[in-house]
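Service request form, structural biology core

Requester: graduate student, group of Dr. S.
Request type: structure prediction, single chain
Budget code: on file
Notes: please return the result as structure tokens.

Sequence provided:
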Amino acid sequence: MISVIIPVYNAAAYLPACLDSVLAQTYSDIEVILIDDGSTDGSGDVCDDYACRDARITVLHQQNGGPAAARNKGLEVARGESVAFVDCDDVVHERYLEVLAVEMDRHHADIVQSPYRIIPESKRSDYGPDRLKQPLPKHYRTKELTAGQALFSMFYQEGMADSSPCKLFRRSLFDGLCFPVIFRVYEDLYAMAQIYPRIQRMVWVDVPMYFYFKQDSGTLNSLSIRRTDAFEVLETLEAQFMVTGQMAYVRAARERRLSVAFNILRLLSRQPHTDANKAMAHRCWQHIKALRSESIRDPRARLKNRLTSLFSYLLMR
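Core staff response, request fulfilled:
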């Protein structure tokens, strides 16, 4: 059985489509665990209504604690041999779990991941039941990765997403581990850095079946502002790798920290020059100055990072 864990917070407008896509899976041996994380918009009532109509659904209500706390609560009650996480405002193809489960068994894998497709919010209505039933390619590529390859791919942003959705996990990977509640964003990145070293084999399935809806208002919203939390997450991981003498992982995590700094500066470039934004930009520049020379010399670093690092010397002048 697969346990599908869905943290729910103030998503009443989108939750029915998400749940309909999960309940319509061709892989039917599932339980769906909904964690109402202190919603105030009626999302909890939507959860309870669906639970009354489908015995596969379990609903847990709790005070708002963030996505990490919600996922941890779901893991506490999950009964499946495998676990999948879905965000409450996303949808999945009807064969999503079937394909991941088949590849997990075929490769004796601990994690199977498929790419997610980013959909503009304005296109949400295009991804109804009919779209989610469209045939998948008969043939698709798969790729096996070791624990080390998965970690490097995540930090160097080579296609291995650091999010908990779009993956199927062996439930045993979470024994003794949980998502860090101290981080309200980038908690997935930290959790994956703890989980990947536990695996023997991870499989990448090259067919997008998870659809993530993204709003792009052109403004730096509160979630974007909290992207600076990634600095603490990555510095914590760097310190852990340093203690164990895994210097290659230290370098990889530092490269990801540089990417975060460049990305936040890009967002800030479109914002008013407030004192808060200036302070955030200054913080990003401190990270860039500390990391750019390493990036330029790192052959595995993304070309974009290396070129931007070179250009940053000109900007500082």
